[in-house]
Amino acid sequence: MLLEFSVGNYLSFREKKTLSLVASSISDYKENIVISERHTLLKGAVIYGANASGKSNFIRAMSTMKRIVMFSFSQSSTKSLDVTPFLLNSETEKSPSYFEILFEILGIRYRYGFEVTDQEVVGEWLYESKKNAEKLLYIRQGDGIEVTPSYKEGQNLEDKTRNNALFLSVVDQFNGFIAKRIMKWFSNFIAISGLTHENYEMVTFKMLDNKNTAKSLGDFYDNLDLGFDGLSINKEKFNTKSIPEDTPENIVRLLIKDLEGAYRFKIKTRHKKFDKKNKEIGEVEFDMRSQESAGTNKVFNISGPIFDVLQDGGVLVIDELDSSLHPLMTLAITRLFNSVKENAKNAQLIFTTHDTNLFSYGKYRRDQIYLIEKDKYGVSDLYSLVEYREEGGSKVRKDRSFESDYIQGRYGAIPYIGDISKIIKEWQEK
């Protein structure tokens, strides 16, 4: 499970900022915590903030760390790492970006991180903690990699590591036990966008095509009352005859090479049909993509990643979860992760949203509610409600009306709009 994620000097985050899923001592909503062998952890976090405050940048930091971990070994020595530091300050624009993550696997805690520029890895470290004290496994500074005697799987691999590749991924390629364990953990650390959700529909198709997972998704759709009475999925093998005749020959060759043996899925929703006396007389099929709402399509597309994480355990990160969704649908998705029955593997959900209803109905603890605010220098700050101090230094009490307080700007992290009536009047007079 995830304990902490930290990022610094990346996009709008100039200083190091940390999102922690280690539960604080507050007593709010105990059903939202998981007691592991060593820690009391939260089942997730919700992140609020104004538009352009840095919410998406924080999610992008998570996906960037995973991308570098999973793919740095396979890219060429000339490939850039595609990392952008904080560019609005002369001291940071040429400095490396910082990423660090703490997580627990079978009672063992690992702390892993690295510092990178767009062209190379300038620092990397891995610590292990089986009881209390951390033990260094290796540390990398510049061109040097120091492997401790206890990390035998990493020895004699230092010279095989390129400047733009992580040492962890190199050890993984040589079947290092700890490295493989960490890489597997990262494979279950999934970050998706709630805006470009079409990219994830194939995950949903595969889960619906599996009898072991199809029922869970079907029950979920029924509970949400999406307006249809069932689904029909047609699975077809790729056929070269489906390629338009005017497609250039070189593109045809690429398609045949890439899609040979692949399947294409078509999905229809089933709706009841009635006669003029409202007597049911049959069914009508609608095309999911063209005839169902944007919200229905989004629920369908992201349901695959959601239930994939719930099934295997792991971390799911979603940017703009509430986009195109009714607040009750957003609430239903978040409650899956707080459910003991649905979330038996203790998966964790982290998401950004503008849906303030969750302050009241989401049943989130103060240490699960995070806010992001950007200052006049373009720097994003991240803090939780349990960390926030009001005037006089007092903590936010659990009996506060969080939604009302947030809208009124009590906790910051909202847009400054100014006097709306004055803006409208000036516009009408033009």
Written account of the structure:
It is a single chain. This protein has about 425 residues and is of the alpha+beta class. The protein has 2 domains: about 1-190 and about 350-385, Rossmann fold (3-Layer(aba) Sandwich); about 200-310, no CATH class. Helix content is about 30%, strand content about 25%. The strands form 4 sheets. A 7-stranded antiparallel β-sheet has the order 2-1-6-7-8-9-10, with helices on one face. Strands 11-15-16-5-17-18 form a 6-stranded mixed β-sheet, with helices on both faces. Helix 9 (about 325-340) links the parallel strand 15 and strand 16. Helix 4 crosses helix 8 (about 295-310). The longest helix has 19 residues, at about 295-310. About 35% of the residues are buried. The model has no long low-confidence stretch (mean pLDDT about 90).
Describe the strand arrangement of the main beta sheet, using strand numbers.
2-1-6-7-8-9-10
CATH architecture of the largest domain: 3-Layer(aba) Sandwich
Task: Name the helicity range.
Answer: 25-40%
Structural class based on helices, strands and sheet pairing: alpha+beta
User: N-to-C SSE series?
Assistant: EEEEEHEEEEEHHEHHEHEEHHEHEHEEHH
Major sheet, described briefly? 7 strands, antiparallel
Total strand segments? 18
Beta-strand fraction estimate: 25-35%
N-to-C span: 57 Å
Name the poorly predicted regions. none
Query: What name does CATH use for the topology of the largest domain?
Result: Rossmann fold
Mean pLDDT level:
88
Principal-axis shape equals: globular
CATH top level assignment of the largest domain? Alpha Beta
Total helix count?
12
How big is the Rg?
A: 24 Å
- Integer count of domains: 2
